[in-house]
Amino acid sequence: MSAPAAAEPLCLADVERAAAAVLPAPVRDFVAGGSGDESAQAANRTALDRVRLVPRVLNGVAEPDCAVDLVGTAAALPVAVAPMAYHRLLHPDGELATARAARAAGVPFVVSTLSSCPVEDIAAEGADLWFQLYWLRDRGRVLNLVRRAEAAGCRALVVTVDVPVMGRRLRDIRNAFGLPESVTAAHLTSGSASLAHERRAGRSAVAAHTGSAFEPALGWADVAWLREHTRLPLVLKGVLDPRDAVRAAGAGVDAVVVSNHGGRQLAGAVPSVTALAPVVDAVAGRCRVLLDSGIRSGTDVLRALALGAEGVLLGRPLLWGLALDGAAGAELVLRLLHTEFREALLLSGCRDAGAARELGTVALT
């Protein structure tokens, strides 16, 4: 009697377990790891689990509407693919495969400065793209990336503001992690790019590369300069303090992403979902608010909306799906999330994402 076929994953945790079983340990650690003692990463999950929803009943709706507008981009559900580095570590097609999955799911894909495929090639896959900027030491190179993103048809710029230096990620240091020669930062091919491949005991080659390329002293004057140099919607990712969110709105920023970088930067940072409601209250509609870090289910998406976010960024699960089965694996992740979010809307009595933002919540202690 033949062995039964492996069951298809039924949730994002299933995808992660299956991917972890097939990945080399150093790559698995690079994706899964956080900074320091990884307590911020664990706290993201704990804080999300403590948010309990208060469903409504008798709304007379059999088919909720999952679609939203995310910072001017139509999306089939309130989700964008978060910017993540080096997808070719997980699958040879890299970001091209992830973009195909985003296109099939009808959600925006945020292309990273540290993408292993150039934005022009990713744009050819037909997904709605945003472009994420890490601020480089050479402002001319920053402007060059902005112009490339604009020319490729990107619909927003996402500036990551919580990486003056890369957080100390102990798994990568212990593994002396470096990129294989087949994987490069496609947008940073000159200067110190080779540092990402130079493995040495007791250090992360990826951190050495970013430390040489990124500007640690990014400030509000740089945000103002960028606002003057592009007409694209401007999003700041990595905001946790309401005071910073208010200042961003005053600087002409279109949206902020409440994020602790998935627990990969300040090890003692507040969980993103805990910071969300205070940011929403502080900006009072003057800019849009998204949530990033720790989203692992459609119920998590609903939690974010109930706390005032307009949508979320989904990160690591897409990489697990990519590792498992390329574009098909990443598409499976987004399909599972869509199924779960639709069911969460239905079970909570919400006819659409707007109604979800009116749900009550209770924080467990």
Protein architecture, described:
Helix 1 packs antiparallel against helix 13, helix 10 packs across helix 11 and helix 12 crosses helix 13 (316-347). The chain has an 8-stranded parallel sheet. Strands 1-12 form a two-stranded antiparallel sheet. The termini are far apart. The protein has 14 helices and 12 strands. The chain is an alpha/beta fold.
Write the layout of secondary structure elements.
Layout: H1 12-20, H2 25-32, H3 39-50, E1 51-54, E2 68-70, E3 73-75, E4 79-81, H4 94-105, E5 109-111, H5 119-123, E6 129-133, H6 139-151, E7 157-160, H7 170-174, H8 205-213, H9 220-229, E8 234-239, H10 242-250, E9 255-258, H11 272-283, E10 288-292, H12 298-306, E11 311-314, H13 316-347, H14 353-356, E12 360-363
Parallel strand pairs: 4-11, 5-6, 6-7, 7-8, 8-9, 9-10, 10-11
Antiparallel strand pairs: 1-12, 2-3
Helix pairs in contact: 1-13, 4-13, 10-11, 12-13
